[in-house]
Design brief:
This protein is mainly α. It has five helices and two strands, in the order ααααββα. Strands 1-2 form a two-stranded antiparallel sheet. The longest helix has 39 residues.
């Protein structure tokens, strides 16, 4: 403490910062990974909303099928992909390991599997488009196959990063719980 009449007390000049407490690295890593997963979940929700919009517009006949193409078969199971994202959002605030594991497994089942099937389903149409230049389905004047393949490329990256960061987060949580058990 500083006094009016004398010098500052020793040890209070700020040079003792090396001995102060710091946030443990696994807590810092957990916060960073949670932030990344939340961002990816939001991007996935946006992609999901685009697929939902296409399915609803087509099914409810809001516009002509010449403007918005009817959905491919893979798009219907992909609509279930909001489930892993919701479970992931529920797992993050309380560090719920079970929910995060369920989210990772269901992401493979409801997100990645329909995309793989969709890639195979649309491949003959894409081949026809690129060999002959003929497209029969359109989304606002663009070839539906091209638009959906673009969506699929983005979705595969988003889901891949979601699963990767979730696995790293699980490893971080397991490391911190193992350290607590050792003490």
């Amino acid at each position: 403490m500083a006094s009016r009449a004398g010098p500052r007390a020793t040890g209070t000049d700020g040079s003792d910062f090396q001995h102060r407490e710091r946030v443990a690295s696994h807590y810092q890593m957990s916060v960073a990974l949670k932030s990344e997963i939340k961002k990816l979940n939001l991007v996935h929700a946006l992609l999901w909303a685009l697929v939902v919009a296409q399915v609803l517009v087509s099914q409810l006949n809001l516009v002509s099928h010449k403007v918005v193409a009817s959905p491919y078969q893979w798009e219907y199971p992909y609509l279930l992909s909001i489930i892993p994202t919701s479970i992931s959002f529920m797992a993050l605030p309380r560090n719920n390991i079970s929910y995060l594991v369920i989210s990772m497994i269901s992401a493979g089942l409801f997100c990645v599997a329909p995309i793989i099937y969709g890639g195979m389903e649309m491949f003959p149409v894409a081949q026809q488009l690129y060999r002959h230049g003929k497209a029969y389905r359109f989304i606002f004047g663009f070839s539906a196959v091209s638009v959906l393949y673009l969506l699929m490329v983005i979705a595969v990256q988003v889901h891949g990063w979601q699963i990767y960061y979730s696995k790293k987060l699980l490893d971080t949580w397991f490391t911190s719980t193992q350290d607590k058990k050792k003490k």
